[in-house]
Design brief:
Blueprint lengths: L1 E3 L6 E4 L19 H4 L27 E11 L5 E12 L4
Antiparallel strand pairs: 1-2, 1-3, 3-4
């Protein structure tokens, strides 16, 4: 997720969420031992289900417009990432 100034392109905030199979990292190496897996939350993203995410950040006080973009990637082993979906929205704030 990226929030930036649409006129200058300056990035104000960048956030990232990663989902992976429990026990393995993105390179396919063991991340946790079998005794640890039972004590952690499920970090995978189930197929055909959506998962809401929330990113909290502050913008400069004089901000009137911001462009927020979100890209979902599916990463295979060895850092091969394929963009699955991308959404960009421009938000405008009224002057007070």
């Amino acid at each position: 997720m990226t929030a930036k100034d649409p006129s200058t392109g300056k990035v104000w905030y960048r956030g990232k969420r990663e989902y992976f199979e429990v026990g393995l990292d993105i390179q396919g190496r063991m991340r946790y031992g079998a005794w640890q897996i039972k004590e952690i939350l499920d970090l995978s993203l189930p197929p055909r289900l959506s998962r809401p995410e929330r990113f909290l950040f502050t913008l400069p006080p004089d901000t009137r417009e911001v462009e927020v973009g979100v890209t979902l990637y599916y990463c295979l082993k060895d850092h091969q990432c394929i963009p699955v979906r991308q959404t960009v929205k421009r938000l405008r704030y009224p002057r007070l």
